[in-house]
Amino acid sequence: MKPSTTAKLSTIAKMLAKENPEVFRAMCEKSEPMLRNVNLVPLVYGKIKEEFPELDRTDESILFTTTIYHAFAPAIMEGDALERLPNGVRPQMCNVMQWKDLPTCNYYANIGRVYFKGKTFKEKVNHILSFFQGYSVKPNQTSLF
Fold first, then answer.
1. How far apart are CA 66 and CA 90, in angstroms?
2. Residue 39: C-alpha distances to residues 24, 96, 99, 128 (Å)
3. What DSSP designation does 54 have?
4. Rg for the chain, CA atoms, rounded
5. CA nearest 65: which of 118, 133, 121, 26?
6. pLDDT tens across 76-94, in order?
7. pTM over the 0.90 mark
8. 43-74 exposure pattern, b = at least 16 Cβ within 10 A, e = fewer
């Protein structure tokens, strides 16, 4: 992002905070990552395998990617260019899933954005993330999204 764009976004954020503090707080909470420790990525996959053994490889990949993106950089799921995954997350994902390249993560994230609009899929993501509340960046984070 260009410095001038960043400055404009900062100004917009300050204006929103002043004009509509409730919306500002809601957006801040919605964009707060739940996890920061990239070593939890394999544990998330293990929990998905344990909780949803009936999933085929494609559905498993979509659920895994969507769950990881929501846990580490939730704003990504709102729009592609809003946020980046922290360094090291995509390589961990590729290692766990045995994918050959990092863009595979982006591919499944794009599909996950569509799936996440469905109630059942959203419940699955929340179900998996509920097991990782103890690792949450924010203590006692109960409402995931």
1. 12
2. 31, 11, 17, 16
3. T
4. 16
5. 121
6. 777 666 678 889 999 999 9
7. no
8. ebbebbeeeeeebeeebbbbbbbbbbbbbbbb
